[in-house]
Amino acid sequence: MKAVVLGATGLIGTSLIRQLADQTECTAVTSLGRRQHFADLAKVDEQIIDFDNLSAHAAHITGDVLFSTLGTTKAQAGSIAAQKIVDVDYQLNIAKIAAENKVPHYVLVSSSGANAASSNPYLKMKGELEDAVKQLPFQRISILQPSLLRGPRQPARTGEIIGQIIMPLFTWLPGLRKYRPIHCDVVAQKMWRVFEDQTQAVATYRLDEIFDA
Questions:
Q1: Highest mean pLDDT range out of 21-35, 70-84, 120-134?
Q2: Which of these, 171, 16, 175, 23, lies nearest to 109 by C-alpha position?
Q3: Which residues are catalytic?
Q4: Res. 209: pLDDT tops 60
Q5: Which domains does the chain have, with CATH numbers?
Q6: Binning pLDDT at 50, 70 and 90, where does residue 116 land?
Q7: pLDDT attached to residue 108
């Protein structure tokens, strides 16, 4: 099978591509990103793309599955509006191209608490993306909703480092268990597992189900 990975230089994307490279069933991986990151992996075809001119890269958005792990933060983007361009617009536009190219399976990393009606801008944009991609004509759609991610993020984000230390201390409290941190490798493993096993047309995997990868 051939996989396409969007956001391959991020925490989950990096883990996913290295796991895909070890899967004998996966014969080719196309990485869509702004820079090269996997020169040591012969199986990976790295495509440097212009996110503002995605139609020029449509020929590379083909295969058996599109894994979408793209994401940024308000601090990195500069504003909520700029973050939404990355977290919603770019992902949705690439998903539309994949659907047009008859990619059968779409696997999206969203967020715990994603809801288009949320008053939280981040959770709102994640929910809006989920709702939009569910309307696309993929044979199967898988949505994963992890919480705070653990792993070797570069560069390190101070707030997330603190969260990785503090949050596990509080997740025994009622209502907080669904926000306990999860390692990027576990999320990547679950992405491969749902590609292999999911039979439903649309399925959402919340945190406990991802931990069961």
A1: 120-134
A2: 16
A3: 122, 126
A4: yes
A5: 2-211 (3.40.50.720)
A6: very high
A7: 98
* Strand ranges inside 97-207, DSSP E: 105-109, 140-144, 149-150, 182-183, 202-205
Report the predicted TM-score, pTM, of the whole model to 2 decimal places: 0.88
Report yes or no: 33 and 39 within 8 Å, Cβ to Cβ.
Answer: no
Sheet hosting strand 44-48, strand order edge to edge: 44-48, 28-33, 2-6, 65-68, 105-109, 140-144, 202-205
Token readout for 170 is: 């509080």
According to the model, what pLDDT value does residue 178 have? 61
Pair 174, 137: CB distance under 8 Å:
no
Residues 144 and 191: beta-carbon distance below 8 Å: yes
Widest Cα–Cα separation across the chain: 49
Cis-peptide, bond into residue 155, ω within 30° of zero: yes
How are beta strands 105-109 and 202-205 bridged, if at all? unpaired
Rounded to whole angstroms, the Cα distance separating 58 from 61 reads: 5
